[in-house]
Amino acid sequence: MNEFDTNIPIYLQIMNSIKQHIVAGQLKPGDKLASVREQAEAFSVNPNTVQRAYQELEREGVSETRRGTGSFIAEKANLIPDLAAQMAHEVIRKYIEGMSALGFTDAQIVTEVERALEHSRTAQNSGGTH
Amino acid sequence: MNEFDTNIPIYLQIMNSIKQHIVAGQLKPGDKLASVREQAEAFSVNPNTVQRAYQELEREGVSETRRGTGSFIAEKANLIPDLAAQMAHEVIRKYIEGMSALGFTDAQIVTEVERALEHSRTAQNSGGTH
Amino acid sequence: MNEFDTNIPIYLQIMNSIKQHIVAGQLKPGDKLASVREQAEAFSVNPNTVQRAYQELEREGVSETRRGTGSFIAEKANLIPDLAAQMAHEVIRKYIEGMSALGFTDAQIVTEVERALEHSRTAQNSGGTH
Amino acid sequence: MNEFDTNIPIYLQIMNSIKQHIVAGQLKPGDKLASVREQAEAFSVNPNTVQRAYQELEREGVSETRRGTGSFIAEKANLIPDLAAQMAHEVIRKYIEGMSALGFTDAQIVTEVERALEHSRTAQNSGGTH
DNA sequence: GTGGTCTAGACCACG
DNA sequence: GTGGTCTAGACCACC
After folding, report:
1. Considering the domain boundaries, does residue A55 fall inside one?
2. pLDDT tens digits, residue range C65-110?
3. Å from the D47 CA to the F7 C1'
4. Helix count and strand count (H, E) for chain A
5. Pick from A73, A88, A105: which residue ends a domain?
6. Which of C8, C95, C102 sits opposite D84 (nearest CB)?
């Protein structure tokens, strides 16, 4: 739950996590974000780090902050489809790039992901969430 | 060609690039790596950074440094399949994780990569690698 | 009408606004200040903030609070000329300081304000106060 | 030299100070800014505070930061006239607004600044910088 | 040495 | 309680 990729600024990972929640529909326009302190506790991270993340999100227009009240997902709902497309595109791009660099063919790039999904599905069925 | 992701240590990106070349068969056991200076020039990066990358690769047993002659891909050829599997696994894992977090279903995770590949293929046909 | 400069305590801006009204003669000794709630509503601000402003004004001897009846401009009329001089002096000082730091000469500091006044006058004639 | 206006974030005052230096021609495109640590020392302020200021300046396109090298005034010289106009306009606006609110007429707004300049000039002649 | 990130902990303005 | 700023001091990547 709380393992951050070393080598990547934590505040960026927090931003990303929140964006994912928005895209996945778990956070909707107008929703209140966890308070800086709560979020910091949840992530076992210093409040300043969360603050930085919220600050940047606001600058990107993803959230809005109201003094003494908290941070909220921006009401501009139309921003969300863009966000989704943009983030998905990035994830896919990195995947294809990574696999190509390793010498995989286009066909393999597809079959490998299928295989991996198959694996994890069977693994789940036989028990381990882990 | 020389755009490094800020927010991720450059030396790690260099290491990764070299590993990819090995896995893809563009660098074979015994092959000489570019000299620190050449590599630095090629990447428009400070020599110290390349130095660091080579150092870490050596520590991982991927390369060997021979005083006065340069760095070479380790002769332990059997290490390569492992490396390939390991890197591919990592790339795939990140992809699935990323897409799942964005709310994509398993089926979509496959079809989206197919679509993206289709796109880039048609783009290439009508345009250029570049 | 209700745009407060973030980065500057709102209660200070409220205090200043009231002082300006006094100096400009729109509020006279003995006049009743708007109730905390009214003022808060007018400024779209939390009552606590207005409360704080009134508190500080009282501490400065500008207003007096009579339990159950409200806040009133202090009767010490002689305080007003001082207040006026002091506030004007501050405003002028900041202006000269600001322009000097930007490299304007003394002559320009005068002519620029003249030009700006000229502009806003013509704008008003052709348009509206608003 | 080092008196910051309480009630205004220090990092904003630092940003402003640098912008003023640019506008006044004391800092030119390509010039290196003092290092974070030097600047912090000079202002008797924590390095993080200076860092924040530089960060924001970069975001505004005023400066550019090169890893491990320092921060530099952006090369886009054409940005400077805009900056100058914008900052001057702001200073003038505040002055006129402030004086108007105090009940001064347009004529007085001009004459008062003239009087103040006259004062400081004679003060200088007779000795006290102070 | 230079910037970038993070922590720990403090104080303030605001609701 | 909530966000915003600041300090002190640490570690890291990079030049």
Report:
1. yes
2. 887 788 898 887 567 788 889 899 999 999 999 999 999 999 999 9
3. 9
4. 5, 2
5. A73
6. C102
Query: For residue C2, what pLDDT is reported?
Result: 60
| Chain segment A25-69, per-residue pLDDT in tens | 999 999 999 999 999 999 999 999 999 999 999 999 999 998 788
How many separate domains does chain A show?
Answer: 2
**Per-residue model confidence as pLDDT tens digits over D44-72:** 999 999 999 999 999 999 999 988 899 99
Domain encompassing residue C85: 79-126
Amino acid identity, position C58: E
Nearest Cα residue in chain C from D114: C110
B48 part of a folded domain: yes
The angle at the Cα of A10, spanning B92 to A52, to the nearest 5 degrees, equals: 140
A102 part of contact set with chain B, CB < 8 Å: yes
In this structure, what is the dihedral angle of CA atoms B84, B89, B91, B97, given to the nearest 10 degrees?
180
Between CA B1 and CA A83 the distance in angstroms is: 27
Report pTM.
0.84
Query: Count of CB atoms within 10 A of residue C1's CB?
Result: 6
- Per-residue tokens: A92: 């896919």
Protein CA D49 to sugar C1' F7 (Å): 9
Kindly give the confidence (pLDDT) of every residue in chain B, 130 residues in length, as a single tens digit, with 9 standing for 90 and above.
456 787 888 899 999 999 999 998 888 888 999 998 888 988 888 888 999 999 889 888 888 888 788 889 988 756 788 888 989 999 999 999 999 999 999 999 999 999 999 998 887 776 555 5
In a domain, C36, yes or no: yes
Closest alpha carbon to D9 in D38, D48, D37: D48
Minimal CA separation from C112 to chain D, in Å: 8
Across the interface, whether the CB atoms of C92 and D95 are under 8 A apart is answered yes
Angle at alpha carbon of residue A101, lines to A95 and A102, rounded to 5°: 95
Which of B56, B93, B95, B108 best probes binding to A when mutated, by most A CB atoms within 10 angstroms? B95
- Nearest chain D residue to C107 by CA: give it: D114
Question: What single letter denotes the amino acid at residue C105?
Answer: T
Q: What is the mean pLDDT of residues A91-100?
A: 94
Instruction: List, in order, residues 6 or more apart from C110 with CB less than 8 Å away.
Output: D110, D113, D114, D117
Q: Cβ contacts of residue C127 below 8 Å, gap of 6+?
A: none
